[in-house]
Automatic annotation (TrEMBL):
Catalyzes the methylthiolation of N6-(dimethylallyl)adenosine (i(6)A), leading to the formation of 2-methylthio-N6-(dimethylallyl)adenosine (ms(2)i(6)A) at position 37 in tRNAs that read codons beginning with uridine. One of its GO terms (molecular function) is metal ion binding. It catalyses: N(6)-dimethylallyladenosine(37) in tRNA + (sulfur carrier)-SH + AH2 + 2 S-adenosyl-L-methionine = 2-methylsulfanyl-N(6)-dimethylallyladenosine(37) in tRNA + (sulfur carrier)-H + 5'-deoxyadenosine + L-methionine + A + S-adenosyl-L-homocysteine + 2 H(+). Its EC number is 2.8.4.3. [4Fe-4S] cluster 1 binds at residues 59, 95, 129. Keywords: 4Fe-4S, Cytoplasm, Iron, Iron-sulfur, Metal-binding, S-adenosyl-L-methionine, Transferase, tRNA processing. [4Fe-4S] cluster 2 binds at residues 205, 209, 212. Residues 50-168 form the MTTase N-terminal domain. This is tRNA-2-methylthio-N(6)-dimethylallyladenosine synthase.
Amino acid sequence: MIDQEKWSTILEEYEHLDVAPVTEPQRQYYFIKKCQQYVKQESEELGRPLYCKIVTFGCQMNARDSEKLTGILEEIGYEMIDQEEKADFVIYNTCTVRENANQRVYGRLGQLNRVKRKNTHMLIGLCGCMMQEPHVVEKLKKSYRFVDLIFGTHNIYKFAEVLATRFESGRMVIDIWKDTDRIVEDLPSDRKYSFKSGVNIMFGCNNFCSYCIVPYVRGRERSRNPKDIIREVERLVSDGVKEVMLLGQNVNSYGKTLEDPMTFAELLREIEKVDGLERLRFMTSHPKDLSDDLIAVMKDSSKICHHLHLPVQSGSTRILKKMNRRYTKEQYLELVEKIRKAVPDISLTTDIIVGFPQETEEDFQETLDVVRKVRFDSAFTFIYSKRTGTPASVMEGQVPQEVVKDRFDRLLKEVQAIAAKECARFESTVRTALVEEVNDQDPSLVTGRLDNNLLVHFPGTKEMIGALVPVRLLTCKGFYYIGEAVEK
Ligand code: SAH
Ligand code: SF4
Ligand code: F3S
């Protein structure tokens, strides 16, 4: 829940303004107040609260954006629920990193239209990365007229304003920006978990890996001011948060565009000083610019988790070059060695793409070789998906589907076998778990996350949620553990 008292004091003075302020975030406070009136009126007519459901696709960035939308929606007066069919307002926060993510949204929209036909006052909103693609918006405008509002990734802070426009006009509202250099602070936000939270440290991406659509839909890289980040972390901690995950498409290039440039390692050192913060994580680290200083910070820190997600994408230097990743197979392996030397119990995870244009069996063997040499604790494996507008989409030599599928299956088998063995290396040790929830299948167990990002199930009660508990890892079940709490 958001801090209602704090926000009603802040918002109070915007209630009787006649014109919207031009400065942000004050302008949004004004529109939140406006939307409150519409929602109140409609809820009085119905004799019940208005319900909202946000469905989030894609990565942690989108998850964090959904929390921001939730904060604004709760302030406006919506109650968040789980069932989409019962909601008065359904929002899809979309992802377009691969084609199948895209197709799922169209499929679900079709179903939602049937619900809306019975429930005509229902609002449907679409946002997220897919909306930044002009051909998607064209298709929606033409064939999905029942959608009420469409907005993008750059102007998410303007959500209340877009919604107010929809309430006033009664028509489809589309507000998409091509890019922005702006970061608006101090808007309401609600967290999914009381004890952990994501914190954006930067937005966008400048890397232009040749297969990837993210730089086109999330815009140019811009870093948040370190002061704003630290203030947010301090607030979260005073609100009971134990674990913070710093978010960026490539955290290693944090701070380059700031007026007073600062490195990611320096930022980590500052955040670590926040009293009461217990655990610090970050995502994602690009291998090309992971500094020695960052490794040193990880080694010295008592708060930074011993887990590093280090996407390799391919093990073939030839393919890495075509992918524009800017490192070789050897450089990647050397980096892994350096990290392991400094932090021996580190868990390494990765992302791998199979079937990039012109990938041969030999290239694929190089990928398998990296997998066998590094022995990742887990790996997300993806079939290459052609994204319109990216350089790779027009490369010659797209690999036939059956070849890709066969490589994908072989890779998955290898990755899983290695991960199961690696996971078992912590068996019978005691490690601290942050308790996240009561186990769905067996309510006598709770589920905790270890600092290496693996889960452990152990006997416990719901009162333990949010606590850091030392747990003996009794048996490894492939990619999670069964354990027991031990006395501190
Ligand atoms: N910024 C992060 C990744 C964001 S996208 C990074 O650079 O590590 C998450 C993952 O999706 C990528 O690591 C990549 O493995 C995968 N991915 C991105 N574009 C893809 C595409 N066109 N086809 C298949 N997988 C893709
Ligand atoms: Fe995409 Fe590469 Fe940027 Fe990651 S670093 S978001 S893979 S372009
Ligand atoms: Fe998807 Fe956008 Fe994330 S495309 S992976 S939700 S940045």
